[in-house]
């Protein structure tokens, strides 16, 4: 007989340009984690083209789910619930995952648990850190969001700060394009920065007087563009690696400063990072050092669990499932879903 304590969730993620499915047991044990990335396709256009993303999700989703089940050695009959990202994200992309999840839930009479994408990113930390439990502070930095969140309990979040303009990942992507690195910018800046001098150029660090935990990255992005224009007008050459490293340092400095301020102010002894930008090597190193200095335990998912994946959705769905969250077959994609909304 199946143990009552084992809850296997089939999770689906399709909010942007990754079609992903995973099977996660009890929120923390990943039995499979299949990701079909569309990066190569969108690289041609210098960024994600929503219409292409939706079409590709439709093409891939069944195959990705079949692979996730087969890698886990399971069929749909072994699954206890279906978890799916229903927002925020690209509406057409989200709809593919939501429709698929609803179809499976209906056909196999399984509970349906809609998950907030950011809750998924935060929950990626539970997978490899069995000792991590709320409360803790989490910095979520992705292509669409930069949030400093107090995770009060499973599924209970207080947003302490957010970006006023560009998300951190968006700034990485825009700066990469400006210095000729192309898409996706984050990993390319990360790599080329290793050959550059982070002290070469002093780019601005934005702080908001009235909101110490808010972020703004449009200023540093404009400063990079102005720097390049200035060099071009003077007929001077510039170092791509120095710009990348200096820009990266400016962003990392602010992310670390605000995060540590929050940890201190809220008296937390645990701090986690999440989201695509959390895979940045300079950010990870700086956070490790800052947490050590502040006597705070630092948590981060492996890079593959930082960028979009369905294992993190399975982790989040498990805690939502335990809390009694069940969605009906009228679940819709909500492109601007707020964290904590149900
Ligand atoms: O979390 P994610 O996969 O998707 C969203 O939910 O947005 O984040 C993607 C973002 C992109 O902007 C990408 O450039 C950035 O994360 N990113 C990185 C790195 N890897 C991905 N940024 C900095 N350094 C990296 N190594
Ligand atoms: Zn994401």
SSE order and pairing:
Blueprint: E1 8-13, E2 18-25, E3 29-37, H1 39-43, H2 50-72, E4 81-87, H3 91-108, E5 112-116, H4 117-128, E6 136-141, E7 146-153, E8 156-162, H5 168-178, H6 185-193, H7 218-233, H8 240-265, E9 270-274, H9 281-294, E10 297-299, H10 303-306, H11 311-322
Parallel strand pairs: 1-4, 4-5, 6-9, 9-10
Antiparallel strand pairs: 1-2, 2-3, 6-7, 7-8
This protein binds 5'-O-[(R)-(carboxyoxy)(hydroxy)phosphoryl]adenosine and zinc ion.
Zinc ion is lined by residues 117, 121, 142, 275-276, 308.
Describe the structure.
The chain has 342 residues and is an alpha/beta fold. It has 2 domains: 8-124 and 306-322, ATPase, nucleotide binding domain (Nucleotidyltransferase, domain 5), CATH 3.30.420; 132-304, Nucleotidyltransferase, domain 5 (2-Layer Sandwich). It has helices spanning 39-43, 50-72, 91-108, 117-128, 168-178, 185-193, 218-233, 240-265, 281-294, 303-306, 311-322; strands spanning 8-13, 18-25, 29-37, 81-87, 112-116, 136-141, 146-153, 156-162, 270-274, 297-299. Helix 5 packs across helix 6, helix 5 packs antiparallel against helix 8 (240-265) and helix 8 packs parallel to helix 9 (281-294). The protein is globular and about 65 Å long. The model has no long low-confidence stretch (mean pLDDT 96). The protein binds 5'-O-[(R)-(carboxyoxy)(hydroxy)phosphoryl]adenosine (KG4) and zinc ion. 5'-O-[(R)-(carboxyoxy)(hydroxy)phosphoryl]adenosine is lined by residues 16, 142-144, 169-170, 172-173, 184-187, 190, 275-277, 279-280, 307-308.
């Amino acid at each position: 007989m199946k143990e009552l304590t084992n809850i296997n969730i089939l999770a689906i993620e399709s909010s942007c340009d990754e079609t992903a499915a995973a099977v996660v047991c009890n929120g923390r044990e990943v039995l499979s984690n299949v990701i079909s990335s569309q990066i190569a396709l969108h690289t041609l256009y210098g960024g994600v083209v929503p219409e292409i993303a939706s079409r590709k999700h439709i093409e891939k989703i069944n195959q990705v789910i079949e692979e996730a089940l087969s890698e886990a050695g399971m069929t749909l009959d072994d699954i206890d619930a279906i978890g799916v990202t229903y927002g925020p994200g690209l509406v057409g992309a989200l709809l593919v995952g939501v429709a698929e999840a609803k179809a499976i839930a209906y056909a196999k009479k399984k509970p349906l648990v809609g998950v907030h994408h950011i809750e998924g990113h935060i929950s990626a930390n539970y997978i490899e850190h069995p000792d991590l439990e709320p409360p803790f502070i989490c910095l979520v930095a992705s292509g669409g969001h930069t949030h400093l969140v107090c995770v009060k309990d499973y599924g209970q979040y207080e947003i302490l700060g957010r970006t006023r303009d560009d998300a951190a990942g968006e700034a990485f992507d825009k700066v990469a394009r400006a210095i000729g690195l192309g898409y996706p910018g984050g990993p390319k800046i990360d790599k080329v920065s290793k050959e550059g001098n982070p002290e070469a150029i002093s780019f601005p660090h934005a702080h908001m007087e009235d909101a110490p935990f808010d972020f703004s990255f449009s200023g540093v992005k404009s400063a990079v563009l102005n720097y390049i224009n200035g060099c071009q007008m003077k007929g001077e050459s510039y170092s791509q690696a120095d710009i990348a490293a200096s820009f990266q340092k400016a962003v990392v400095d602010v992310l670390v400063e605000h995060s540590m301020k929050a940890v201190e102010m809220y008296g937390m002894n645990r701090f986690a990072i999440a989201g695509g930008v959390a895979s940045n090597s300079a950010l990870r190193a700086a956070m490790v050092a800052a947490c050590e200095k502040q006597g705070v335990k630092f948590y981060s998912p492996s890079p593959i669990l930082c960028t979009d994946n369905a294992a993190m959705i399975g982790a989040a769905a498990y805690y939502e499932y335990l809390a009694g969250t069940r969605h009906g077959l009228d679940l819709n994609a909500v492109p601007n879903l707020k964290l904590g909304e149900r």
